[in-house]
TrEMBL record:
The protein's name in its UniProt record: Indole-3-glycerol phosphate synthase
Family: Belongs to the TrpC family.
Residue stretches making up the Indole-3-glycerol phosphate synthase domain: 4-248
Entry superkingdom: Bacteria
Underlying gene: trpC
A Gene Ontology molecular function term of the record: indole-3-glycerol-phosphate synthase activity
Keyword Lyase tagged: yes
Pfam entry (one): IGPS
CDD domains: IGPS
Catalyzed reactions: 1-(2-carboxyphenylamino)-1-deoxy-D-ribulose 5-phosphate + H(+) = (1S,2R)-1-C-(indol-3-yl)glycerol 3-phosphate + CO2 + H2O
Length: 261
């Protein structure tokens, strides 16, 4: 079994348990359900830095990225650094994140927040809304086209935007449906953990013109942004390079300053 399959298996156990403890109608009582979303796709369109900075304590490929930085500090740091938005890992088991991290980031900032999660059930979309997300990630590699349609519709009805993650041409072809605002090309192969920015450049021309292109993972040099912009990307998702620093917010600020306007 590869890592993605393991994660999905663990996820479906968690969801079954949570559903029995907290029925979906309780989630709808969250005051954040009434909150109007803050659009990430619009923030990326208005040019700006294009940076989506991620809060990530660890990952299956890196067991210790950052164990010390409090989420409220990092969130405030990313926002004042000029990031367009923030991605918050909410997976507990493999990434050491939580929905509480998302809630705390929401209470600290106003900029768009992405719930970074392995979404396989509508329940998780309600959770995302209830904890202050503006965007959800849908990973093509773990979803059927039918599910992507249903999830996109539900998200839309809640005012949540979609970032659809693909790794290759076949996934893009099968998974892209109208109504999706952003497509993210993951430069990291989630099966082998290998990273190559060439993946983004190869897939960019196949993404429909009207859709915002995001390049995800393995970005650590401001010059890489220049290249990716030329290839048509407007969003750049960066995790480890910021989080591995003592103060991720300051690292992000230095990075954004070093980027060409
Ligand atoms: O830390 P990096 O290499 O800058 O990557 C960030 C982000 O792209 C990565 O964490 C990610 C991309 N897609 C995912 C799906 C699930 C978990 C994590 C991810």
């Amino acid at each position: 079994m590869d890592i993605l399959q393991k994660i999905v298996q663990q996820k479906s156990r968690e969801i079954a348990l949570k559903k029995s403890l907290v029925p979906p109608r309780y989630l709808e009582h969250s005051p954040l359900f009434e909150r109007q979303g803050n659009s990430l796709s619009q923030a990326l369109q208005k040019s700006g830095s294009g940076i989506i900075a991620e809060f990530k304590r660890r990952s299956p490929s890196r067991p210790k990225i950052n164990q010390h930085s409090p989420v409220q500090e990092v969130a405030a740091g990313y926002e004042s650094a000029g990031a367009c938005g923030m991605s918050v890992l909410t997976d507990v088991h493999f990434f050491g994140g939580s929905l509480e991290d998302l809630l705390i980031a929401r209470s600290t900032t106003r900029f768009p927040l992405l719930r970074k999660e392995f979404i396989i059930d509508e329940y998780q979309i309600l959770e995302a809304k209830a904890h202050g997300a503006d965007v959800i990630l849908l990973i093509a590699a773990i979803l059927e086209t039918r599910q992507i349609k249903d999830f996109t519709e539900l998200a839309g009805s809640l005012g949540l935007e979609i970032l659809l993650e693909v790794h290759d041409e076949a996934e893009l072809k099968r998974a892209f449906i109208p109504g999706i605002q952003m497509v993210g090309v993951n430069n990291r192969n989630l099966k082998t953990f290998e990273v190559s920015l060439e993946t983004s450049k190869r897939i960019a021309p196949l993404i429909p013109e009207a859709v915002i292109k995001v390049s995800e993972s393995g970005i650590s040099r401001p010059e890489a942004i220049k290249d990716l912009r030329k290839a048509g990307f407007r969003g750049f998702l960066i995790g480890e390079h910021f989080m591995a620093a003592d103060e991720p917010g300051i690292k992000a600020m230095e990075f954004i300053k070093a980027m060409e306007p």
